[in-house]
């Protein structure tokens, strides 16, 4: 298995980072996880735009990031070792080596890694079990929470916590106790013909799949609510589902031990199929 690191393709066991790398020592870096289908990345330009946004927030020079066309070529090459139609692609950016201390070097020499591994999409109608994390809250003022930081400790701790309850993922609340998101996805609820999702001010990381669902809702003139919800209020929805740019949509069938309604086939199934089409047939590079 090969990876791409700092300008060249390398065998996995030959790729390494310096012991002074700030991404390793301090979590001083960011990443983006992407879905590739038959060698092409879905929403690539949008993913690269998010990487630029991550870089700007931590004052990382944008000109050190690979161009969109270069990333597309790298992924196409890495995909040759994937013997399936789908792959998960991750681009990780560390600020690179630095002296001891918090302040980064004025002229960073970053570590940039791109990997591709086989990925098996799941049926969106296979239910997901969530449990509310009591340890972790989203902070709308956190820089690390505003980007896909390489410091993922909050999400790791939340997932470890709820695994003990038999849940597959954690429901994470905002600082004031309202529903925010899961460790890896945004949340939606359905009531009749109305769609609900947490507002950005809850401290969520707004994903590309969330953006697409909201775009479809606007085009279809579906009413969308961003009203704050306590976790126990989720049981009032006809259906709850998650959305992320890797897995697409996943229906939630149980939260904190109670059963959630089954989504209306005509609404959820159509929406899930549209998202999957975007992740496969609708790819634009």
From TrEMBL:
SUPFAM superfamilies: D-aminoacid aminotransferase-like PLP-dependent enzymes
EC number: 2.6.1.42
Alphabetized UniProt keyword annotations: Amino-acid biosynthesis, Branched-chain amino acid biosynthesis, Lyase, Pyridoxal phosphate
Keyword Amino-acid biosynthesis (UniProt): yes
Cofactor: pyridoxal 5'-phosphate
Protein function: Acts on leucine, isoleucine and valine.
Family: Belongs to the class-IV pyridoxal-phosphate-dependent aminotransferase family.
Name of the protein in question: Probable branched-chain-amino-acid aminotransferase
Organism placement in taxonomy: Bacteria, Pseudomonadati, Pseudomonadota, Alphaproteobacteria, Rhodospirillales
């Amino acid at each position: 298995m090969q990876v791409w690191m700092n300008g060249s393709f390398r065998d996995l066991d030959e790729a390494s980072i310096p012991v002074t790398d700030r991404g390793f020592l301090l979590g001083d870096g960011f990443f983006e996880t992407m879905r590739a289908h038959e060698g092409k990345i879905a929403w690539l330009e949008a993913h690269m735009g998010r990487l630029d946004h991550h870089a700007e927030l931590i004052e990382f020079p944008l000109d050190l990031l690979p161009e969109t066309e270069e990333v597309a070529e790298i992924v196409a090459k890495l995909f040759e070792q994937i013997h399936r139609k789908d792959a998960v692609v991750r681009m990780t950016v560390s600020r690179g080596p630095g002296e001891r201390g918090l302040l980064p070097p004025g002229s960073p020499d970053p570590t940039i890694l791109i990997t591709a591994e086989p990925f098996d999409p799941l049926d969106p109608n296979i239910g997901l079990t969530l449990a509310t994390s009591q340890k972790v809250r989203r902070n709308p003022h956190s820089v690390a929470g505003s980007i896909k930081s390489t410091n993922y400790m909050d999400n790791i701790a939340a997932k470890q916590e709820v695994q003990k309850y038999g849940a597959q993922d954690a429901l994470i609340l905002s600082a004031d106790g309202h529903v925010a998101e899961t460790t890896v996805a945004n949340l939606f609820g359905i009531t009749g013909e109305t769609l609900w999702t947490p507002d950005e001010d809850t401290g969520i990381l707004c994903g590309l799949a969330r953006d697409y669902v909201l775009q479809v809702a606007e085009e279809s003139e579906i009413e969308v609510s961003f009203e704050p919800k306590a976790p126990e209020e989720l049981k009032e929805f006809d259906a709850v589902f998650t959305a992320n740019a890797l897995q697409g949509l996943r229906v939630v069938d149980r939260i904190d031990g109670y059963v959630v309604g089954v989504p209306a086939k005509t609404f959820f199934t159509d929406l899930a199929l549209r998202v999957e089409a975007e992740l496969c047939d609708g790819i634009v590079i």
